[in-house]
Amino acid sequence: MDFKEFYKLLNEAITKEKTDIKPTSENYNTYLFNRYLSFYVPEIAVHIAKTTNKLGFIPEENDEEMSFNCIKAILPKLPMVYIDYIKKPAVVASQEYDFDEDEIFLEAKLNECSKREIRNLILDYAKRSGKREIV
């Protein structure tokens, strides 16, 4: 996906500034577009869902232009601001600790979460307790 064009289309939909880019399968995805809009202003996602559901508009899978024009038409004009995306926490200093991968795997399976989450929990505990060893 061409994210440079994707962001230009996003900017056009939000601020109503014109671009010469046409939405295609290479630069536009309805799900991602709505996801980014929900980061921009959470109420927009609800507004889009209510409007499209009330009107019964469900764009065809391969009709990116119709979907983009519909979203652009129902959005209010908004000022452009920085979007703070949710990012997963980075595993910091994991090289300093010697993890037993079998125990990590078993804990992850037992707690129904990922191995990364178990490693992060262990690292957080080690940081809070000031210990350099993992017990």
What can you see in these coordinates?
- With 135 residues, this protein is an all-alpha fold.
- The protein folds into two domains: 3-74, no CATH class; 94-129, no CATH class.
- 56% of the residues lie in helices and 0% in strands.
- The protein is built from six helices and no strands.
- It has helices spanning 3-15, 30-40, 42-55, 64-74, 101-111, 115-129.
- Helix 1 (3-15) runs parallel beside helix 4 (64-74) and helix 2 (30-40) packs across helix 3 (42-55).
- It is elongated and about 55 Å long.
- The N and C termini lie far apart (45 Å).
- The model has no long low-confidence stretch (mean pLDDT 77).
Quick gist of this model?
The protein has 135 residues and is mainly α.
Defining key terms:
single chain, 6 helices, 135 residues, mainly alpha, 2 domains, elongated
